[in-house]
Amino acid sequence: MLATEVPAAQPELPSHTPVFAGADRLERHAQDLLGLRFTDHPDPRRWTRHQAWPAGTFPLRPDAAPPERRPRRTPADQDYPFAPLLGAGVVEIPVGPVHAGIIEPGHFRFQVAGEDVLRLEERLGYVHKGIERLAVGRDPQGLARLAARVSGDSTVAHAWAACQALERATGWAVPPRARSLRALLAERERIANHLGDIGAICNDVGFAFALAQCGRLRELWQRRSQALFGHRLLMDRVVPGGATHDLDEAAAATLRADHAELRRALGPIFEIIEDHPSLDDRLFTTGRLAPADARALGCTGYVGKASGQAFDVRRDSPYPPYDALAVEVPTFTAGDVAARVRVRIGEIRASLTLLDRILEQLPGGPIIAAAPPAAPRPAGAERAGLGIVEGWRGEILTYVRLDAAGRVARFFPRDPSWFTWPALERLVHGNIVPDFPVCNKSINGSYAGVDL
Hints:
three-stranded antiparallel β-sheet; single chain; 42% helix
C-alpha cells in the first residue's frame, strides 16, 4: 500500500485519470465525499454528491456532522449536467432511473441518430447507502456483516475481501479448513449468478428456453445452499477468522452428487446456447468491447476475459486455498455479448471442477479461530490491510484501516463494477437502441456495488 499526505487546508493531488481512465469515477467519488481535489482531472462534475448535502459538506471527513433527519423530501437531482451531443438528426432518449423490471435504479442518457447509438452517458448513485460512514466505529464482526450487504449478489466475495483485509491488518490466522470452505462458498456464488445471467441474456433476445432451464437449475442450487449452509445467498457465512458452517461426510457426498448432476443437466443446454442460429444472430458482434478499451478501463471478470484480459486473482495473485489449486481461466478476444456468455459458461465448468477438488482436499481441523490478542499500541496508532478476492464479477479490492482500539476507522470496498459500468458506455456505440438491454445484461454491473 502506498500513502500520500495532503494538507488539510488545501487537499489537492494529481489525478490518475489521464493515464488510467478507470480511476475517473473513483476520484470523483472521493472529491464529493472527502473534499479532495484532483488538479488535472478531465471531468470536474460531481458523481456521488446528493442534493441533501449543502455545498462544502463532505460527509466522510472525520469532523463532518451527522446527517440531519429532515421530514421533507430531498429535492430531485434534476440538474446534473449531462454532456450534450449536437447535430442534425440527433435525438436524446432518457431511460430510468426507474425501470420496468426489478433491477436497481440507474439513469441512462442516449444520443441517437435513428436507432444507432452515438453516445451513452450513465448517471448512478440513486441507491447511495452511506456504507463507508456506517462502517466507522464497527468491530470486525460488524464490519463483515456490513460488507456482506454491499452488493447482495456478491455477499460471499465482499465479506471474504473485508475479512481478508481485517485479518491481514491484525495478523489473524485463519484455519486451513475455513479457507477451503470460503472458497467453496465463493464458487457456489459464482455458479448461481452465472446461471442467472446466462438465462437472462438469452431471454432478452427472446430465447426463453434458456431462462427457464437456467432458472430451474439455479433454484435447485440455491435450495441446496439453504439446506447445508443456512442461507440461499450464503449471507453471513464468511466471518472474521473463518466460516460459520462446516460439512460432514454426508453433506460432502451430497455436494459431489449435485456437481455431477449439474454437469449432466447443463451439457445439452450449453450446446444449444453455444450453437443456435437465432442466438448467434443477436449475440455475435453485438456490444463489442475492444481489448484496448477493456485494458484501459481495468475491466476484470467476465467482461475483461471476453475482451482478452486473462487476469484472475485466483490464478495470478492466488490466496489460500487457490494457491494449491489449478484455476482454469476461459478467455476470448471477440469482446461481444456472445463472448461474455461463453466466459460465464466456461467459468461454471471450471468452478464445478474446483468444487470437486476443494472437497477432495478439504483439510481437517476447526473452521474458525479467535482473534489474536491486541498488542499494546501508542495513542493514534492505526493498522491497515487490503483484501483482494476474485468475485464472480471480477476482482474485489477492499481497504480497511483500524484505529488504536481495533475499531474501523476507514472502509472502502471496490467492486469490479466501478470499471465495467464505463465499459457499457463504450461498447454500446454503433449498436441500435433495441440491443441496449442485452448489452446491459451482458455487463450486469452492480448498482449497489458502486452506489456506496
